[in-house]
Amino acid sequence: MRRRRRRRLRRTYRGAAALLAIFGAAALGFSSLRGGSAPAQAPYVRPHAVSAAQYDREVAAANVSWQRDVDVLAYTAAYNAHQRELYLQEIARQEQAAAARERSKARAARCGVPPDDGAAPAGFPDSVIQAESSGNRAASNGSHFGRAQLSCEHYASGGGCVGLSYSECWTKLWDGGAGASNWAQTIG
Prior knowledge:
Blueprint: H1 2-28, H2 52-111, H3 126-133, E1 144-145, E2 150-151, H4 152-155, H5 166-174, H6 184-187
Antiparallel strand pairs: 1-2
């Protein structure tokens, strides 16, 4: 058992030593392992004597360089976290908008208002559409639906639009401008 462990350790040591020799030589500039010649300068340079002030300046420069690298990494991490947060907020906003559309459709279906399916009647002011629903076919305030904000009451029994599509009801209520009183608060 010991012999096997020793052999394994020797093989590991030999492999690590070989890798260290290759990469260490490359780091020092030796190209002879790649078939070139020895480096122009010796791999070991004897340290020169420096004053304490010079040493302090070199250490300070190294620290500034190191701090700059740390600052860049910190900025990058903060930027990535911020971008992820923005992405998650956008996903949440989209999910909330989809849920609101589904709730609006469900309320409209319960009340009998069909989906907004066509163009506005001839002569219907675009300013009213913008004021009522901003042109959003799925707009709802709970009791009025679609671009024209037709009421549930129009589709209730006796409301005049039972069995009509959204655009047919809209055209009937507008009646070539004679029914403008249905949107009197918006037009006036």
